[in-house]
Each structure stands twice: as structure tokens, then as C-alpha cells.
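Lab notebook, entry 353. We have the chain sequence and a SMILES string for pyridoxal-5'-phosphate, and the next step in the workflow is to get a structural model of the bound complex before anyone spends time on docking refinements. Request logged below.

Task: model protein plus pyridoxal-5'-phosphate, output C-alpha cells.
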Amino acid sequence: MRKRDIDTPALLLDLDVAQENIAAMARYFAARSQKLRPHFKTPKTLEIARRQMAAGAIGITASKLGEAEVLARAGIGPILIANQIAGAQKIDRLFAIAQKVPVIATVESEFNMQELEAGAARAGRALDAIIEIDTGMNRCGTESPEETIELARRIGRGLINYRGVMGYEGHAVLIADRAKREQTARDALAILSRHVAALRAAGMTPEIVSAGGTGTFDIAGSWPDVTEVQAGSYVFMDGAYRHVRPDLGAPALSLLTTVISRRGDRAIIDAGMKSLTNEFGAPRGKDLAVKVERLSEEHGHLNAAGTEIGPGMKIEIVPSHGDTTINLHSEYYVVRGDEVIAIWPIEGARAYR
Ligand SMILES: Cc1ncc(COP(=O)(O)O)c(C=O)c1O
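Result returned:
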């Protein structure tokens, strides 16, 4: 099949570009003590996870149990679940995953510990865990070294094994100004280091110190206390990252759409918010001259002034945020040049439980 024969809207994955993005990140980590545990929340397909593991990743990071279940069924691990899991139903699923592949859970409070210990007693087995530290994102995580130490001591007392800490500097990753992004990341990592130093002084040196996203992979990836980086978007380099890190790889992901109307300067494509998200701003075309002005439910409004865009034409749009757009789809049309060479299932799509 050729690209132009694909029914639209359809997600395209340019395999050579994605493979080069995977290889470039693997090269960065190959020669350093910090390692890569790529985040599954972006690609959500086993095909990419397998390629990342083959390129040297030390495991996979996941955010949702549903994603971890997809990985575990395929025997891919160890899995770091970089998110708190709450509720007995989910805790039992977590222990079921741990029977298939090694899993590391993330805790931030006494509440998590009580749930995990009750789950460990029900399952009759131990589980590894790290502590999430809030390094300035103001989401989850402990807020002082004292709180982290208390939680680490608490972990060591029962069936849950203390393995280390994580601190994701999500408030830094998408800052476009390079100096500001790097400084914000360093400030966040300095907070992480204060917690690590306190743990060391208390005799609880963390074996795992996880941080970093695509925007800051090289700051986190060269920070002495960090042992692993949980970047995800680097495989596809979506529209937001194309803008923030033009020094990294090319976009490997696009949404193939069909123009259904042209009136004056306005052209309409057959992709709206049900197949393309815009929480990081309106997406642009693969060809940057194509500007999407807004999305409605089923329609994308293009500014077509000065272009030859007309009904029936197929146009590739680069999602501004890959993760949430991918989540709307069930398969990638894998292309090399103009040729469709495979169709890959997105096994982790909508695995939001
Ligand atoms: C906890 C956590 N780690 C890592 C990432 C990956 O970041 P990126 O997509 O910038 O690579 C995210 C993204 O939101 C995240 O929430």
C-alpha cells in the first residue's frame, strides 16, 4: 500500500526517523553511568518498546497499570511505574504484573505504603518501590528530605523493598528558552540531590534515582546523582518538542488527513479533536507552511492563504502533543518513504486505568 491509499485520519509512523531517534538517544546513554528507561506513555506500542530495549534501555517506564499490563503480557521489563497506584483493585493488578516481570512501584505517602503492604500480604510476595519527590512541579511527591527519610524508613520495615527515588522535572521540560529550561531543570535536580544526600547520610543510599524528560534528558542524564532517565517523547518528537528542542531528531509521527473543503483562504481537513489533540496549541503541518488555526470536533481549520491546498488533497499534520493524540488511535501505519511497510497495534491506547 502507498501512503496516499490510506483512509484518513490515520497516524503515520516514519520508521527510519523513529529508529534514528531511538539510536541517537541510545548513543547518548551508551557511554555514561546514567541509563535510559524510556517512557511507554508516548509510543504505547510494543514494537517501539522492543526496539528501545534492543538499543540498550534498562527497562521501561509506564504511567498506568494498563500500560504495564501490556508490557508484562509481552514479557517486557523491568517496569518502573512512575505514578502512584491507589485502590485495592489496582494494587492486586500491580502484584499480578509483578508475577510476570519485575516491577518497581512509586510511593509518596503513608497511604500508599498501607495499601502496598496490604496488597503484599494478600499476594504473599514482596514488591520493590521508590519514593517520588516533588522537585518543583507541584504534583505528587514528598516535599522535604525529612519526609523522604521517614518514608524510606517506613518502606524498609515491611514487605516492600526500598530501591530509591524519582523526581520528574515536568515543569522544565517544555520551556522554549534554552537557558531558562536548563536552569529550571538544574534547580529541580538540586532539590532531588538534597533528598539523596539526606538519604545517604541516614544510611539509605538510593540505588535508583530517576528523573528527566525529553526536554531535559541531557541535564538529568549528566547529573551525577541521577542513575536513570525516563524520557518518552524523543522517539517521535511531536510539535511541542520540534519547537523546544530543534537540536534533537526530526518528527517521526504525523496524522494523515484529507482536505474536505476549500473556501477562500480557509481549508478544512477531516481531523478534529476526536483524532488530534491541541492542549499544547494548534498543530502545524509536517510542512511548516501549513497552519492549523483551530480544531472542532470533526474538523480542522487550516489557513490556506497563498497555497494550492484543495479538496481531496492529503495533508500530514504533526500533533502538537504526541502522547494524547496517539491515545486516540488504535494503530500506526508504519511508512518508509511513500510505502506502508506495516501496521502496528497501539496496545496501550486508552489504557488509562
Ligand atoms: C513522570 C513522567 N516522567 C517522564 C515523562 C516523559 O517526558 P517526555 O514526554 O518529555 O519525554 C513524563 C511526561 O509527562 C512524566 O509525566
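Notes for the group: The first helix runs from residue 15 to 30. Worth checking against the assay data. The pocket of pyridoxal-5'-phosphate is lined by residues 39, 42, 82, 168, 170, 173, 213-215, 230-233 (CB under 6 Å).
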